Amino acid sequence: MSRTPDVSVVIPTCDRPDLVTRAVRSALAQTVAEIEVVVVVDGADPDTRAALAAIPDPRLRVLPLPERGGAPNARNVGVQAARARWTAFLDDDDEWLPRKLEVQLALAATATVASPIVASRLVNRTPRAEFVLPRRLPEPGEPICEYLTVRRGLFHGDGFIQTSTIMAPTELLRRVSFTVGLRRQQELDWTLRALAHDDVRLLMAPEPLVLWHQDEDRPRISLSSPWAAQLEWLRSSRPLLTPRAYAAIALSVVGSMAATTRDPKVFRTVLADARRHGRPGAIDYLTYLQIWLIPPQLRHSLRDRILDRRRRPAPPAPPAAAGSARPAEPGLAAADSGNP
User: Fold this and answer.
1) Distance of CA 80 to the CA centre of its chain
2) Residues 251-278: pLDDT tens digits?
3) Which of 301, 245, 296 is nearest to 274 (CA)?
4) Which residues are bridge partners to 156 per DSSP?
5) Burial of 178 (0-12, 13-18, 19+ CB in 10 A)
6) I need a surface site. Which of 15, 103, 147, 218 has the fewest CB within 10 A?
7) How far apart are CA 57 and CA 332, in angstroms?
8) In the structure, how many helices (H) and strands (E) does the chain have?
9) What are the C-alpha distances in Å from 134 to residues 131, 149, 154?
């Protein structure tokens, strides 16, 4: 490819040849044709390299790494190799709907700041149900960190951002890289730090443009991260969060990880930290209690009944116009809302 592409697509992968080829094909099928797809193979993985070699598209580049460094490191490597002004991320187990980049580029053109982060809604697809996240867009003047973390119901949050929805200036992604070694809340960590810069805002396309495949039977690193390390990360991020957002993350995200210990001392530790550094609301306390008292499978079943989640409908097609999206005002932060 000689012409500079409009968007560089970065896909980190490891030992999932079937999934990553599905992701790559969804990127190559975008209505924006002038793109490059950079797949960073995280460590020795001959099966994945062979599967990608069978895709005859000159827009595809494969960057094999000599040893495994994790998804944040692979994303950073891909960003350094990106040739376009814009870089968009796609996890190897997700898919894009065909107009994803088209809609986001149109929305980016409306930005009033130099470095907009452009995200979108997604279709969260699990073996049990299918639904759209986030459930609403930010309200005027609402701190983005609270929009994306503070719950209005016991079993779900309202705001959400996920890696496969993110498109941002390549320069910004080089200026603010992903934290290598962080196993959970990678989007949250990155977006918090990026939005701390004066020239950065979050724009959210109202259409669902990504299929987020959540195979609940497949092991996920994000579900096994130690609670103590997550609490340490939260404490280090405190300057980027409002007290309400801090408490929400402590009692829902860290709480969901800590509850697996069934240790009363751990229960008190997380609760005390949320009270010391944050400002919990009634929903935060009730969420924390139900996480500790209700077994996960029963909690998931109750959540689905309460939310009346649909059983695997066809993914909605994006509407023709992207101009109806509202830009999210900066607040203090933005990012992953944790478990929906």
Assistant:
1) 20
2) 999 999 999 999 999 999 999 999 999 9
3) 245
4) 153
5) buried
6) 218
7) 42
8) 13, 10
9) 9, 11, 16
